[in-house]
Amino acid sequence: MSKRTVQFKIYRYDPDRDEKPYMQDISVELEASDKKLLDALVRLKSVDDSLSFRRSCREGVCGSDAMNINGKNGLACLTDIDGLPQPIVLRPLPGLPVIRDLIVDMTQFFKQYHSIKPYLVNNDPAPERERLQTPEDREELNGLYECILCACCSTSCPSFWWNPDKFVGPAGLLAAYRFIADTRDQATNERLDNLEDPYRLFRCHTIMNCVDVCPKGLNPTRAIGKIKDAMVRRAV
Amino acid sequence: MNVAKRTFDAVIVGAGGAGLRAALQLSEAGLKTAVLTKVFPTRSHTVAAQGGVAASLGNSTEDNWHWHMYDTVKGSDWLGDQDAIEFMCKKANEVVVELEHYGMPFDRTDNGKIYQRPFGGHSMNYGQAPVMRSCAAADRTGHAMLHALYQRNVRANTQFFVEWMALDLIRDADGDVLGVTALEMETGEISIFHAKATIFATGGSGRIYYSSTNAFINTGDGVGMAARAGIPLEDMEFWQFHPTGVAGAGVLITEGVRGEGGILRNASGERFMERYAPNLKDLASRDVVSRAMTTEINEGRGCGPDKDHVLLDITHLSPENIMKRLPGIREISIQFAGVDPIKAPIPVVPTCHYQMGGIPTNYKGQVVVPKDGNPNAPVSGFYAAGECACASVHGANRLGTNSLLDLLVFGKSAGETVVEDFQSGQLKLKPLPSDAADVSLARIARLEGQTNGESVHEVGLEMRRTMQKHAGVFRFDNLLKEGVQKIAEVAERAKHTEIKDKSKVWNTARVEALELDNLIEVARATMVSAEARKESRGAHVRDDAPDTAENPNGRDDANWLKHTLWYSEGNRLDYKPVNLKPLSDDVEPIALAKRTY
């Protein structure tokens, strides 16, 4: 790929300066080495240093640069620029309060993550060596533990938009099932009690936006289904 | 500007592996602790570590900490301190097993134990054959580890200050450390964190180089703060270039790929490592492999139209094994190299990866400086762990998987030392000097008022290009001398950078300008220390210090078996002895020898 100019339409809002948000039309000339959307944003920022966004690892593992790209949530660092219809429309993740430009307040998202007690519970005295787990039991955690907490899923979920304070959301529920599925964890009952509620778990209507947007290819809907199965099994 | 003051027993700067491990120690002991972090904890760069963490568990092959210690000392090219290395290798099993108990999803062997894979420079029986020592969660070990540590901190109710950037270290007239100043990114407010103990766990500074596997946030904040506050930096000439960064993109491809059987090939398809390291081949130490690759490229045997990279080949491995053990690498290759490694080899080049040097500490995590004839006198109230610190366990070259081990062992050790010092009543809340925040306020005011300055982006780019050209894999006297001059010029320009964005709210332009101040300290330290060291050792290899009978591999133990100390003020250098004596009588000192693989 050679040098080329790319058109953007970017959500801008600086509460220190702007009365209200606006969409900024802006274009930037990219170098041949600029391949990902994040490269373009860094290039844009070298021209206008006020453009604000989070970023860190630039390889899709830290979860910082989630945003709404042409109407769909994704990570800027894993999104190829070429192939995106222009102008590329960038907005902050939907459903969370905007702090500035593409930066949202993620307090509610992390509150829900914390609410599922995202840590292993095992009250047996710690053995001298590792607790044993068969490779098959360990495989149950694949597709669950890889979550990067970018919030692409929860902020694409209409149930989370409507009830961010009551519905745990796909990311938190995926984490909940990650511990339920872990043979080393002893708190399955408490975990299910914690979710047995018309809102916390059951606001999921299997719309599957979460699956569609997850940049790590994870499937929160399936995990939610398995939590529901576990509740049914426990009831009979 | 109004400066709020907050008081804690301890303040930890950084919430990567080392900071979180230290925080656990303090939170579980009931100390009132503040953890400051520029990013939400799970976004720290520990998350990007891939291949594993070293521990001689011996789950798949026979192993013991003596072998691990030998490999680490040899890997360090004898610049590592043997007391700290013994401490780390002995503690490895304990800290890795603890993580498993915290819930870390390690892969498993058939009998249910933690899965271990071979890694570069790790051997059995003192260099005889590769050993399986790297404890792994697929190729996402850092992610699994960081999340497990964060989760354990959630359980321990650790208090985080997320998206706060520490600005400057506060020291009083005695030189004791009293805390830090910090910027809350959301509001732009400056606060003082006044504490009895301050632990730096701010990670590396790999962003001084143009091509780096490091994240944007790896700007050497702790290292820069320490240097500005008069703490010398140790062994900053030693930078690890990881053999396998994706060509053009810089993104890391784990050494675990070679641990699982991957092979490096040149343009003619030759497995060239057989010529450079007949015994361990592709699993030789990182500095050795990076130099071999660079030599292949320099001598015209590179691949691609510009002959500027080599190939990492795993096409001979079964797709099932690749999907199971290296799923993240496959994703990265497809994303950033445009190749599926099941079908085609990955283009790779040596890429700046890790800072062996840093803030000088002892094995307890105390920051130490020369004072009254003692080269290692602890600075009261100041501790450091992880990549920002130099214990020194990595010496002139770090072995793969020893970084995750370093941050666990010394994060825990620093935490334990603070708890002990706190409980013994040794740590006092000393009164803050009246000018505690003045340096930080002056830096902020300078940025606020600066006009007609250069952009942070331009100056930073010049620094990165200069480092890349003048202090790379191979080093040359004339380039280093020029580099010292050029970095001094860049440092001068950095004093006059201008930001257009003056907003108080989430001002990332301001953050990047403040980060550049830290990077500049690291760049100066690196260039000056490298220019001065007239030998080849580990990752520091000069063309005017070649392999001779007198100085094997160009290493000159008679004159240079010593740690560098660089002081920011006056660009001054000092040296201190390497500790060749282990911590206990359990092991004999590992005698100096020529390093071959």
Automatic annotation (TrEMBL), chain A:
<dbReference type="InterPro" id="IPR004489">
    <property type="entry name" value="Succ_DH/fum_Rdtase_Fe-S"/>
</dbReference>
<dbReference type="Pfam" id="PF13534">
    <property type="entry name" value="Fer4_17"/>
</dbReference>
<comment type="similarity">
    <text>Belongs to the succinate dehydrogenase/fumarate reductase iron-sulfur protein family.</text>
</comment>
<dbReference type="InterPro" id="IPR017896">
    <property type="entry name" value="4Fe4S_Fe-S-bd"/>
</dbReference>
<keyword id="KW-0816">Tricarboxylic acid cycle</keyword>
<keyword id="KW-0249">Electron transport</keyword>
<dbReference type="GO" id="GO:0006099">
    <property type="term" value="P:tricarboxylic acid cycle"/>
</dbReference>
<dbReference type="GO" id="GO:0051537">
    <property type="term" value="F:2 iron, 2 sulfur cluster binding"/>
</dbReference>
<feature type="domain" description="4Fe-4S ferredoxin-type">
    <location>
        <begin position="137"/>
        <end position="167"/>
    </location>
</feature>
<dbReference type="InterPro" id="IPR036010">
    <property type="entry name" value="2Fe-2S_ferredoxin-like_sf"/>
</dbReference>
<dbReference type="InterPro" id="IPR012675">
    <property type="entry name" value="Beta-grasp_dom_sf"/>
</dbReference>
<protein>
    <recommendedName>
        <fullName>Succinate dehydrogenase iron-sulfur subunit</fullName>
        <ecNumber>1.3.5.1</ecNumber>
    </recommendedName>
</protein>
<dbReference type="InterPro" id="IPR017900">
    <property type="entry name" value="4Fe4S_Fe_S_CS"/>
</dbReference>
<dbReference type="InterPro" id="IPR025192">
    <property type="entry name" value="Succ_DH/fum_Rdtase_N"/>
</dbReference>
<dbReference type="InterPro" id="IPR050573">
    <property type="entry name" value="SDH/FRD_Iron-Sulfur"/>
</dbReference>
<dbReference type="GO" id="GO:0009055">
    <property type="term" value="F:electron transfer activity"/>
</dbReference>
<feature type="domain" description="2Fe-2S ferredoxin-type">
    <location>
        <begin position="6"/>
        <end position="96"/>
    </location>
</feature>
<keyword id="KW-0411">Iron-sulfur</keyword>
<keyword id="KW-0479">Metal-binding</keyword>
<dbReference type="GO" id="GO:0051538">
    <property type="term" value="F:3 iron, 4 sulfur cluster binding"/>
</dbReference>
<keyword id="KW-0004">4Fe-4S</keyword>
<keyword id="KW-0003">3Fe-4S</keyword>
TrEMBL record, chain B:
<dbReference type="GO" id="GO:0050660">
    <property type="term" value="F:flavin adenine dinucleotide binding"/>
</dbReference>
<dbReference type="InterPro" id="IPR003952">
    <property type="entry name" value="FRD_SDH_FAD_BS"/>
</dbReference>
<dbReference type="InterPro" id="IPR027477">
    <property type="entry name" value="Succ_DH/fumarate_Rdtase_cat_sf"/>
</dbReference>
<dbReference type="GO" id="GO:0006099">
    <property type="term" value="P:tricarboxylic acid cycle"/>
</dbReference>
<dbReference type="InterPro" id="IPR030664">
    <property type="entry name" value="SdhA/FrdA/AprA"/>
</dbReference>
<dbReference type="GO" id="GO:0009061">
    <property type="term" value="P:anaerobic respiration"/>
</dbReference>
<dbReference type="GO" id="GO:0008177">
    <property type="term" value="F:succinate dehydrogenase (quinone) activity"/>
</dbReference>
<feature type="region of interest" description="Disordered">
    <location>
        <begin position="531"/>
        <end position="556"/>
    </location>
</feature>
<feature type="binding site">
    <location>
        <begin position="403"/>
        <end position="404"/>
    </location>
    <ligand>
        <name>FAD</name>
    </ligand>
</feature>
<comment type="similarity">
    <text>Belongs to the FAD-dependent oxidoreductase 2 family. FRD/SDH subfamily.</text>
</comment>
<keyword id="KW-0997">Cell inner membrane</keyword>
<feature type="binding site">
    <location>
        <position position="398"/>
    </location>
    <ligand>
        <name>substrate</name>
    </ligand>
</feature>
<feature type="binding site">
    <location>
        <begin position="14"/>
        <end position="19"/>
    </location>
    <ligand>
        <name>FAD</name>
    </ligand>
</feature>
<keyword id="KW-0472">Membrane</keyword>
<dbReference type="GO" id="GO:0009055">
    <property type="term" value="F:electron transfer activity"/>
</dbReference>
<dbReference type="Pfam" id="PF02910">
    <property type="entry name" value="Succ_DH_flav_C"/>
</dbReference>
<keyword id="KW-0813">Transport</keyword>
<keyword id="KW-0560">Oxidoreductase</keyword>
<dbReference type="InterPro" id="IPR015939">
    <property type="entry name" value="Fum_Rdtase/Succ_DH_flav-like_C"/>
</dbReference>
<dbReference type="InterPro" id="IPR003953">
    <property type="entry name" value="FAD-dep_OxRdtase_2_FAD-bd"/>
</dbReference>
<protein>
    <recommendedName>
        <fullName>Succinate dehydrogenase flavoprotein subunit</fullName>
        <ecNumber>1.3.5.1</ecNumber>
    </recommendedName>
</protein>
<feature type="binding site">
    <location>
        <position position="221"/>
    </location>
    <ligand>
        <name>FAD</name>
    </ligand>
</feature>
